[in-house]
Amino acid sequence: QSELNSFLWTIKRDPPSYFFGTIHVPYTRVWDFVPENSKKAFQQSHIVYFELDLTDPYTISALTSCQLLPQGENLQDVLPRDIYRRLKRHLEYVKLMMPSWMTPDQRGKGLYADYLFNAIAGNWERKRPVWVMLMVNSLTEVDIKSRGVPVLDLYLAQEAERLGKQTGAVERVEEQCHPLNGLNFSQV
Which GO terms describe its cellular component (predicted)? Predict the structure, then answer.
């Protein structure tokens, strides 16, 4: 395992700095495959910077706002009618299926299908098409079954806070959001 490419880069200085590439998937899917050298580097670090600070309420609020269409516009106004109708039918199907997609563990933790659907797809008619596309891609049985498990970035941020590490972010929400919002309809 020590020979694996762990997506960990070391910047040789005193003390050393590390650069670790993560992916946005539930940490439980990848944690057992993160090599020990990466886990050790995280444990030994006093300051940890993330792509975005997912523990900051402002970041979450800004991400939510950035996804919205301009005031007064709805998805129905910007999507072709047939695509809008197919999307609406698909979301109705997902909402109907979601209770059967949830795990007993999720239900045991008090997670309800309606709540989960609204947390993911709530206000979908006000979102920009690119964000609706990303949302629809995450509304699958496999993804629903892993809801409630933080993605790797968030897990590491929560661990850093729990361990009293100083945290920060290397990007602002706008740096992530504006390029996606700049895609034209045919690109989306």
Answer: plasma membrane
